[in-house]
Write a structure and sequence with these properties.
heterodimer, A: mainly alpha, two-stranded antiparallel ribbon, 17 helices, 4 strands, B: 288 residues, two-stranded antiparallel sheet, 11 helices
């Protein structure tokens, strides 16, 4: 009997099945959070969820499509401002504005991509930053939205989400949780699809990928637009929770890009697990060191450099190399037939 | 006349932007490294200038004698100690390490110097001006800065194409392995390139600190100006960065003339416009 007869190619492994099972249990527990968690806890969990979403999207761009962007705050801020404009000027219900923000993000990402895809590598990174700065400066000129000092969401609109404060907080909490799950699921499905295979090929070797007939520009473009759309809807939700927006907060490179890069680097770039683990580590660090102020940011910088030099694949990359463990079934492997 | 004046002032401002850009262009040319911390290093140089001026009681321009060698030394150590270990086919490590460095410098400066904005006082020279035809007057200080920018770029050009060091730079840029075989130590060559880049940053930082007030958070903005000048001028062309800096400075001043809030925005739009019509810049030399 040849090896082909008694072996099969599989993606799922015992580890991925156990992880999926635990993941579902965890998710059920988190969905029920409004009944067991306090307000501060819920706020923290939704912040964690939103960072998981942002980090997973940045990881999709940088870790899989090779598009290192330091300008994702452009779409976070755009989503936030879109939500404010749509609800204040057009009376769109806030929760409906979140998916609409995704459409706006995608529509704007198209011309931006056409323009900045002309820049390569690191220059692409700074090009994305310029775009984000343009957005910040333009919104600072829009006096209907408060100009440079920003604006708050009117009380009437806030009350429109739900009558009671606790119900309102539960709604936005579920939205944050749902968005994080959606983003991770989209990234996972994308990577398992035909396009995902093309992406992995591009990541490993652009030249070889081209020779196999992969349209690199189009594949990267697709990924850029998808992640812009989802980043915009995350941004809309972030500022729906904050209830206040200003150009400096909306287009902050520190909050929406530097922290996100840090999360992905320490967690493990180019893996689905990395951004999730990185977010948890980031919040553990933040909750313990936040009182130190600038020292905390100094520590972040040093940790990021140390990880990049010593363990460039991050924590999860290290674990994966040592154990071959994979919680999301992506890699195909040959296993004996049961 | 107001318009002519703002264009002339924009040209002079362009000299400063060219200084921001020259160091960036240099290291990209030699080792394909884009230093995200470049702007923060400019601000660091401004603070070094400030400290030197206060500690020794010298004129800000005299502080260059200390700031420039100090920045060059920092550059060499940084390159040999950290950045050389990030260079390779993957663009991610140098990008992320310099990004981390940017965060460290910003917050380190914040810790030492606080967030208060500072300015170096250059005395009477700050307000001195020369009257030229048609009621336009040129500030002596902006003129000195522009002339310095031209001299620095001419000097870099000379180093690059007329000296043994420049030959080493160009050789390692063309092919690192063969340069190594020919007896060049590329780690050392890269260290020298970064030292030269940060020496220029030293000049740019002191000029920045004399011209405007500064605080630890303005670094990324300076990086973006420098980067825009590099791309407008065309990658790898040093004289191009001067042209790029001038175009950027003029666009900003025209923008400010139309509406005070549009200064920076006009510069960014000029950059995006050039990117749209001439994606490789106006005077490209090398492939990105």
């Amino acid at each position: 009997m040849s090896a082909a007869d008694n072996h099969i190619v599989a993606r799922a492994s015992p580890a991925s099945r156990i992880a999926a099972f635990i993941g579902v249990l965890l998710l059920i527990g988190l969905i029920a959070a409004p009944w067991w968690a306090g307000r501060a806890d819920m706020r923290l969990i939704s912040e964690i969820c939103l960072y998981v979403a942002l980090a997973s999207l940045w990881n999709l761009l940088a870790g899989y499509a090779g598009l290192v962007s330091v300008g994702q705050q452009a779409f976070v801020g755009l989503g936030g401002y879109f939500l404010f404009a749509a609800t204040i000027f057009f009376g769109v219900p806030p929760l409906a504005a979140i998916p609409l923000a995704a459409a706006a993000g995608a529509a704007l990402a198209v011309p931006i991509a056409v323009l900045i895809f002309r820049l390569r590598g690191a220059y692409f990174a700074i090009g994305t930053w310029v775009v984000a700065e343009v957005f910040r400066l333009v919104f600072a000129q829009v006096s209907a939205l408060g100009g440079g000092s920003g604006t708050s969401l009117p009380a009437g609109i806030v009350k429109g989400i739900a009558a009671s404060r606790s119900l309102r907080e539960a709604y936005t909490y579920w939205m944050a949780l749902g968005l994080a799950v959606l983003v991770v699921a989209v990234v996972y499905m994308l990577l398992r699809s035909r396009r995902g295979l093309a992406l992995t090929a591009i990541r490993d070797n652009e030249l070889a990928a081209t020779s196999l007939g992969i349209d690199i520009w189009r594949t990267k473009f697709f990924v850029y637009v998808i992640s812009a759309a989802l980043t915009a809807s995350v941004g809309a939700l972030i500022f729906l929770q904050k209830l206040r927006i200003s150009p400096d907060a909306a287009f902050s490179v520190n909050d929406w890009t530097a922290f996100v890069i840090f999360i992905v680097v320490i967690g493990g770039i180019g893996t689905i697990e990395g951004p999730i683990i990185g977010t948890i580590l980031f919040f553990l660090l933040r909750e313990t060191l936040a009182d130190l102020g600038t020292t905390y940011l100094l520590v972040l910088g040093f940790v990021a450099i140390a990880v990049m030099l010593r363990a460039p694949k991050g924590l999860w990359g290290y674990v994966k190399d040592k154990t071959g463990l994979e919680l999301f079934a992506l890699t195909r492997r040959v296993v004996p037939k049961a | 006349m107001e318009w002519v004046n703002s264009i002339v002032q924009g040209v002079l401002l362009g000299g400063l932007y060219a200084l921001f850009a020259a160091g960036l262009s240099l290291i990209f040319g030699v080792m394909r490294l884009v230093n995200i911390a470049h702007g923060d290093l400019i601000v660091l140089a401004a603070y070094l200038g400030l400290t030197t001026t206060i500690a020794l009681g010298v004129h800000p321009l005299a502080s260059l004698m200390i700031v420039v060698p100090a920045m060059a030394a920092i550059g060499y150590v940084l390159q040999r100690g950290v950045l050389n270990r990030t260079l390779g086919d993957d663009i991610l490590p140098p990008l992320l390490v310099t990004f981390g460095l940017s965060v460290i410098i910003q917050n380190g400066l914040l810790e030492v110097y606080t967030a208060d904005s500072q300015k170096m006082n250059a005395g009477a020279i700050e307000t001195a001006s020369l009257e030229v035809a048609g009621g336009i007057s040129l500030g002596v200080l902006p003129l000195i800065m522009f002339a310095t920018a031209v001299a620095v770029i001419a000097g870099l050009q000379l180093v690059f194409y007329r000296t043994a060091l420049g030959r080493a730079f160009r050789a390692t840029s063309d092919n690192q392995d063969i340069a190594q075989l020919m007896g060049l130590n590329k780690a050392h060559v890269f260290g020298l390139a970064m030292a030269l880049s940060l020496a220029v940053v030293g000049i740019a930082g002191v000029f920045l600190g004399i011209r405007t007030s500064f605080d630890p958070a303005i670094g990324p903005g300076r990086l973006i100006f420098g980067f825009e000048a590099v791309i407008i001028g065309g990658l790898g062309n040093l004289w191009g960065t001067l042209a790029g800096g001038i175009i950027l400075g003029v666009s900003q001043n025209i923008g400010a003339q139309i509406h005070p809030g549009w200064q920076t925005l006009a510069g960014h739009l000029a950059f995006l416009f050039v990117l749209a019509v001439r994606p490789r810049g106006l005077f490209p030399r090398i492939e990105g």
